[in-house]
TrEMBL record:
TM segment ranges: 56-79, 99-116, 128-146, 152-172, 184-206, 212-230, 297-319, 334-355, 362-381, 393-414, 426-448, 454-476
Coiled coil: none
Protein name, entry field: Major facilitator superfamily (MFS) profile domain-containing protein
CC annotations in GO: membrane
Pfam families, sorted: Sugar_tr
Organism, scientific name: Euphydryas editha
Database matches in InterPro entries: MFS_dom, MFS_sugar_transport-like, MFS_trans_sf, MFS_Trehalose_Transporter, Sugar_transporter_CS
Amino acid sequence: MLVKGRKPQVASKEAKSAEEYEALQSFLRSISSTATLPPYVKGETYSSVRGVFNQCLITCAVLILSVGAGHPIGFSAVALPQLRKENSSMRIDDEMGSWIASVHSAATPLGSILSGPIMEAIGRRKTLQVSTLPLVIGWILIGTASHHAVLLLGRLVCGFAVGILAAPSQVYLGEISEPRLRGLLIGTPFVAYSLGVLYVYALGGALTWRSVAYLSIVLPVLAFIALCFSPESPTWLARRGRFHDAMAAMSRLRGDSDTAQRELHELISAREKEKARGEESIRFLATVLRPPVLKPLLLINAFNILQILSGSYVVIFYAVDIVKDTGGSLDPQVAANASACVRLGVTIVACLLLLKVTRRFLVLVSGIGTAVCTLALAFLLSQGPGTGIAPPFLILGYVAFNTLGFFLLPGLMIGELLPTKVRGLCGGYIFCLFNSVLFGFTKLYPIMKNSMDIAGVFGLFGASAALATVVLFLLLPETKGKSLIQIEQYYQNPNILWLTRKKTASTQNV
C-alpha cells in the first residue's frame, strides 16, 4: 500500500520535471542568440537609461511601504510621553510603557519566520502587498483603542506586518537591481524607515497619538496600489520555471533585451549547474549546513545581534527618554527630532556613498565612530550631572556614525551574501532571530538602565560596537560591483577570513 501510494507522487514529480525541461528548452530556443553575447565587463553600462529609470521607479513603490514600516518603529517615542501625562485617558507607568515600546518587536519574529515560506510560495512582490493588510488593521486598532490591551494588540499586529515585509523588501530589491546600483537601491529602504520615523516624530509634536495612528494608514494603501504596477522578481520566476515571464520582467528592468538575455542566461546556467551537482534534491536544513550557506548566515546573525546590543533601535524607541536621562540643556523633544533628522540625512548620504566607496570602508568607519561616541558618552555620564550640552551632541554623533554603515548593513547582507536558493527562506529566519533579540533587549532596557545606570548602558553600546567592528573587519567580503553569482562563488572557496582570500586557489571572482 505504501509503495502504491508513492507512485502518483513520483509520477507527478517526473511530469513536473519534464514540463519544466520543455519550458527551459523552449525558452533557450527563443533566445538562441544569447550564446553569442559578450560577458558582462565591469565598467560598461549595464542597463539602458530606461532600465535604470524602471529600477528606480519600482524601488519607489517599495519605499512607500518602507516609510509606512518606519511609522510603528518611531510611534512609541511619540506616544509614551503623551500617555504619561496626568490628563491622559490611558495613563501608563514605566512597566506599561516598556511593553508598548517593545511589544512591536515581539510579533515581528512571527511575521519574519512566515515571510520566508510566503515569498517562496507566492513571490516577493505579492508578499509585500499581503503585508499591507495587517499594517492597516494594526493602525486602526491603535487609533480606536480605549484600553491598554487594545493598544498593545494594535502594536502587535503592526509588528507582525513589519516582520512580513522586512525580508522580502531587501530580497526583492537585491534581485531586481543591477550590480552598479544594488548597494544604493537595497540601502534606500533605510532612508525610508528614517523618513517614516521622522514623519511620526514631527506629527507627534503637533498632534495626538491617535491622530498619528490614523494618518499612518495612508502610505500602506498607496504602496499596495503602486506594487500592482511592478514586476515580480526575475530570479524567483526563473527558479519557478517561468522563463518567459522572467525574460519579460528582466527586459523591463534592464531596458535592453540583449542585456536581459545575458543576465537571465547566467541565472539559468547557475541553476542548471546546481541540478547537475544534485543540490536541488538536498533538504533545506542540509543545504543551510553547507559551508557556502553557513558562512554568510553566521556572519549576518552575529552582526545583527551585536548591532542590536550597540543600541541602534533602542535609541529610536526611547529617543525622548534617553535624551532626558543623559541630561544637558537641550529640550528632549527637540533633541529627539534632531536625531531623526540626522538619521535621515546620513542614510541618504550613506546610500550615495555606496556608489563610490567600498562596503567594508563604510561599515568600518561606522563601527569605529559609533564605539568612540558611545564610550565617550559613557565616560562623561559616569562623572555625574552638570555635563552641559555635550551629551545631546554625542548622541547625535552616535546616531550619525551608527546610521552610516551599521544601520544599512543587515539589509545589504541579506540582499547580497545569501545564495539564491535559500535567500527567501533564510532571509525570513534571519529577521525572526533579529526581532526576537530586539524584543528582549528593548524590553530589558528600563531594567538595565535602573541597574547599570545610563552610563553603563552606553558603555555596553560602545563595547558591542567595537566587537562588531572587529567581526566585520575579519569576515565581511567586499561585494561592491560584484554580481550575485560572483558573491556566491566567493563563499564556495575554503577561506573563512577575508584577509586570507588570496591564499586560496580560486579568488578571481571576489
